[in-house]
Amino acid sequence: MAITYHDIKPWGRSLNEYVRMFNLTPADLERKIIGCGDGPASFNAELTEQGGNIISVDPVYFFSADQIRQRIYETYNDIIDQTRKNQDKFIWQEIGSVEELGRIRMSAMEKFLEDFSGGVMQKRYIPGELPLMPFSDKEFDLALCSHLLFLYTDNLSLEFHLKSIEELCRVSNEVRIFPLLNVNADRSSYVEPIIDFLRARNRDVKEIKVAYEFQKGGNTMLRIC
Question: Which of 103, 129, 137, 182 has the fewest CB atoms within 10 Å, counting from its CB?
């Protein structure tokens, strides 16, 4: 059975997951970071608690915490149901079951919701979306894009991906994107065209193995300097 999402779903991941998804070192976590498409991840809240310098950008931040919470509850069962029907696409090792996955994700999203209102006032959560972002050239040291580009290959065009990655390269000195698979754990058909596009523009592009794998085969990120 195939997983099908008609739109992008709010689904939160933790600081620990970000560290492993993006091979983040202690030095990386001290850099000025932009998280693009973070949604209801607790990465911003947790890194801020540790003294980090992080801004998250997502269109969901146009809404209030209560509205985001409602959206999470509206989509939660669909995500869990589709995951349960497609368990063969995932590795159930660190996360032992669909139920445990739900608890882990809800814990991260609750932490985000607790932090959101204060984070908006501190301008750590900025409403916006690719492929155009309200930042200056090279304003950030490191841009992270988790579970948006490539994952939603069926929802977002190649042109959107190319423009979005160019925008990430504009606002940051380094870009890391994870995963390189679509929602059905197949390698995105956009990966190779995008690597060719970037190399033709003299970008340093590498596919790097990371210490995280939940989707089968989803253990590499794209690093662009």
Answer: 137
pLDDT band for position 120 (cuts 50, 70, 90): very high
Rounded Cα distance, 25 and 28, in Å: 5
How crowded is the C-beta side of 212, counted as CA atoms within 13 Å? 19
What CA–CA distance (Å, rounded) separates 145 from 18? 10
Name the domain count of the chain: 1
Q: pTM higher than 0.90 for the full model? A: yes
Q: What is the extent of the structural domain holding 209?
A: 15-224
Q: 60-76 pLDDT, tens per residue?
A: 999 999 999 999 998 99
CATH of the domain at 32: 3.40.50.150
